[in-house]
Amino acid sequence: MSVPADAPILTSDAMREAEAACAVQGTSLSELMELAGAAVADTAWRMAAGAPILILCGPGNNGGDGYVAARLLATRGAAVRVAALSEPSTELAKAARAGWSGPVEAVDGRLAPAPLIVDALFGVGLSRPIADDLAAILGHFADRRILAVDVPSGIDSDGAADWMPPLRADVTLALGALKPAHVLLPTAPACGRVLLAPIGIAANKAMRTLPRVRETQPEATAHKFTRGMVLVFAGPMPGAAGLTAAAALRAGAGYVVLNGSERAPFSAIIAESDAKFGERLDDPRVGAVVIGPGFPAGDELLFDVEAALDSGKPLVLDAAAIDAALPRLSETPRKTILTPHEGEFARAFPQLYGSKIDRAKAAAARTQAVVVYKGADTVIAAPDGRLVAAWPGSPWLATAGTGDVLAGACGAMLARGGDAFDAAVAAVGWHIAQAARIGPGLVADDLIRD
User: Fold this and answer.
1) Is 119 annotated as a binding residue?
2) What is the pLDDT of residues 230-239, one digit of tens each?
3) Domains defined for the chain, CATH in brackets
């Protein structure tokens, strides 16, 4: 399972708008379909490696892409067959069907399979689950190699509904831009490997996939405070805050203070068990404050969160600290990153609906904070609508303490100055890269070691 790095993501409505903009700028929708069909044909040609190909065409424009691909594959000498659910229903699809000179079989229980099945049935146009009788027919092809055009037929391309396709794809060819279903659970695994076909659509990157991790080297004139000073506040469970502090140091901070703990995981971290949190908050060198890891809800946490908010410092709020800060988050603009997992998000934002992308964007707009909505399909949302989807992450991160490490990485990136959204994206990228480096058997402590 993989998706291209730093690739645009468009909802179905945004995709239609982008296609309409192409038409205004001189590229007709029929030309876009020809480009899309050519991309499908190229991918199918490589996947089939000379074996026969069966293209399943639906009545809409996704089926039109399939007819174009069939015509182009036939000119290459491929053994290609076409089967359709019905006659085309759109003008573009009708024109594409007219360009295919071969026979068209029916999609029914008598349809013979082929080594490669191209799923061009519905794509992004589906508004309800596939009917049971069609799902049963398609289920007979489940043991074949499957190439899905845009999205596997049977899923909601916007990721708001959890329908699952009867044919899980080995490869999905996204046309023009990725769709939310490619990067969100539960549908993303059903897309297999996602490839992006640039077909001339100018898709903006307000929503995009995680960029490639680039390690930034400190400037020659850097010192520990220019690299960022992070203040981590430890609660009753100091082990979690210790992970956070160590992660901040490993992720590039130049100076880390662990306040409220007698011991620090590294000698380079300043542990201050008796120091007043408020006194440290007054230090002008503090570039970011992290509070929440290992700190249960209660009056003590509320008091310390209030002090952190009053300080005006850039903040990373995790776990129960998110709930404690919610009433005041949108009052005064500040650089703030929230790092909730699924349960914490549901508790903090119970009235938000739609896909995970929709909910993350709504939470960011409501709080005026950057939201790192954690999970296997982590999304990072900014108040201005920017969003990065980090699918696939690393399954080895599904273990205790890794969220505390991510909070520390967010603190390190935030303490450097600059945009809070960029800091959160960099922290998530660092977190996933660390997990990939370690691999099987990962425990949270491994993320902060050499």
Assistant:
1) yes
2) 999 998 888 9
3) 12-209 (3.40.50.10260), 229-448 (3.40.1190.20)
